[in-house]
Amino acid sequence: MQNATIVDKKNQNVFSGQGESGPRRAGISTASVHAGEARQKAYDAITDAICCSSTYTFESTDSILEYIREKQDREEYGRYGNPNEKVVERKLAALDGAEDAIVYSSGMAAIVGLLMTKLNSGDEIVFFDQCYHRSREFCAKHLSRFGVVTHQVTTSDFDAMDAAINERTKMIVSESPTNPHLTAIDLEQFVALGKERGVETLIDATLATPFNVRPLEYGVDYVWHSATKYLAGHNDLLAGVICGSREKLEPVRKLRGILGCINSPHNMYLLERGLKTFALRMERHNQNGQQIAEFLSNHPRVERVFYPGLKSHPSHEIAKRTMKGFGGLITFLVRDADWKETAAVIDACRIPKIGPSLGGVESLIEQPLVMSYFDYPPEVRESFGIYDNMIRMSCGIEDPEDLIADLEQALSQ
Ligand SMILES: *Cc1c(COP(=O)(O)O)cnc(C)c1O
After folding, report:
1. Site to substitute for ligand 1 among 128, 155, 229, 331, most atoms within 8 A of C-beta
2. 32 pLDDT exceeds 50?
3. Protein residue closest via CA to atom 7 of ligand 1
4. Least confident residue range of 20-24, 296-300, 359-363, 399-403
5. Selecting from 3.20.20.150, 1.10.1760.20, 3.30.565.10, 3.40.640.10, what CATH number does the domain 76-275 have?
6. I want to staple 96 with a disulfide (CB 3.0 to 4.6 A). Which of 64, 144, 243, 363 is the partner?
């Protein structure tokens, strides 16, 4: 499952990640380092040169006409893409086992680009309710202005999702695993429902990453990642990606050229560089996540731990079946603590820094109540499963012993 196919032709290391016909199979770490890149590069450099150009020139009028007639694969104008972005798109497609990947200037730009392409006035979309809240907000508050109807049902309640689908439904959406409750979705059931009811399926796999699960292999139509998180991995850039079949993504790419939510070559150089160590980093994130979740679940001051790698998690069996590892994100509840006592645990930490986001090499810690839901009335927060004593920690790649010692001292303050 974690292998990609190498086909070495036309000076390209093409790791299609699909099919059985390649001369040999490459692992995910080899693909992270080499996939999508030309074997021999400009100036014979080992790294890709950052190609700063807003426009691309033609030798003659004839060469423009050839480009148009033959649909030549070359650059034209920067809003339609740039060479650094193309390398990253090929690499991400290989990692997810996709025919194609379209990169955007943020995760949110990616989902907006996809939904704006696929949904028309009168269409309906159904979300599992633990989905990234801004994606639901975009549909409920903004696509609604263009006549798109949004439904939300309880996460993993497939009967409720089935009941919410009608002849106008175009797409069903879930995150897996979800944030901050880390619910893993049964992808086989999700895809089966989509196929049975004739609707497209979209999975936000930001927390899983293609290291831990590749939803396209289950038959999901679109995979969405915030590349800002584990894919880039260094808390130093924003980007997003949609992976899927070339045919389904062609109109999506055309609309991106109009929306203009494109990445600069500099940003794409950073993402390519971050991706080189993607597989290595994920191994450590998975190890740290598991070890720290186990430590927390045995700690007397911790009431409950949400981590799919723990037997106590309601979706542990699904996670075990579908995921190679369980990632670095952990949510836990501090026993008998009000929101201020919970904040005190966070403030006592010395290694994890306090902030939103996840998936970087630096550990981050936050209280969802304060960081994301402070303006919501308590009963609405409760309905989202956000509790006053909840802490979310994104385990970085620091030494697990150091993170555990730090949490131990913070919890005993
Ligand atoms: C961060 C995040 C997003 C949004 O991505 P941006 O890059 O911040 O726009 C979407 N889904 C999940 C699960 C995320 O963590």
Report:
1. 229
2. yes
3. 107
4. 20-24
5. 3.40.640.10
6. 243
64 Cα to the center of ligand 1, angstroms: 39
pLDDT digits (tens, 9 = 90+) for 123-154: 999 999 999 999 999 999 999 999 999 999 99
- Measured in Å, residue 104 CA sits from the centre of ligand 1 at 12
Q: How many residues does the chain have?
A: 413
Distance 81 CA to ligand 1 centre (A): 22
Ligand 1 atom closest to the Cα of residue 179 is 13
10-40 in b/e burial notation, b at 16+ Cβ within 10 A? eebbbbbbbeeebeeebebbbbbbbbbbeee
What is the position in ligand 1's atom list of the atom closest to the CA of 358?
A: 15
pLDDT per residue as tens digits for the range 375-394: 999 998 988 899 999 999 99
Considering only CA atoms, which of 108, 84, 104 is closest in space to residue 249?
A: 104
**pTM listed for this prediction:** 0.94
Which class is domain 279-412?
alpha beta
Residues with Cβ within 6 A of ligand 1? 106-108, 132, 175, 179, 204, 206-207, 226, 228-229, 238, 240
Atom 4 of ligand 1 has which residue's CA nearest to it? 107
Domain map (residue ranges) of the chain: 76-275, 279-412
Hey, whose CA ends up nearest to atom 5 of ligand 1? 107
Ligand 1 centroid distance, CA of 111 (Å): 10
Report CA(202)–ligand 1 centroid distance (Å): 14
Strand order in the sheet with 353-354: 302-306, 329-334, 390-394, 364-366, 353-354
Instruction: Yes or no: say if 98 and 17 are a contact pair by the CB < 8 Å rule.
Output: yes
Tokens of 266: 């500099």
Rg of the chain (C-alpha set): 22
